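Section 3.1: Structural characterization of target chains.
Under the original work plan, the team committed to producing a structural model for every single-chain target entering the pipeline before any wet-lab resources were allocated. The record below documents one such target. The sequence was received from the expression subgroup and is listed exactly as submitted; it comprises 135 residues.
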Amino acid sequence: MNIIHHPGDKEKTAIIDSLWSHNALYHPVDITPLIISFTDDLGIVKGGLIAQTWWGTLEIQYLWVDEEFRGQGYGKHMMEKVEEEARKRNCHMAYVDTFDFQAKAFYEKLGFTEYGSLSGYAHKFCRHYLSKEYL
């Protein structure tokens, strides 16, 4: 047994692929990545969203908007786009997590509701888990 402090793709891929091979015994694996981004006039990425869909679910992993573009609707627009694509992929729900200093209220405005939380990150932050069902 080894502790790997700087794992490469080999280790990560072996573990993830093996887990999903096991899961496939119960239901077909259909993980599909989904990324949305936008750039400024110089082509520099100023915001983006990284997600994936699987088993009828949209999993939002990362959402970031550069400070100078915040409050202008970019985050909301990316969320609308990703949810539109998720529905095309027959997703019936979505989930995301966010820290208390990040975007909990943002997700709630978009119809997400908190289903759990975990305090104690860095001994001062709370992580919120939110979900949304599609009709």
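The helical segments are 9-23, 74-88, 104-109.
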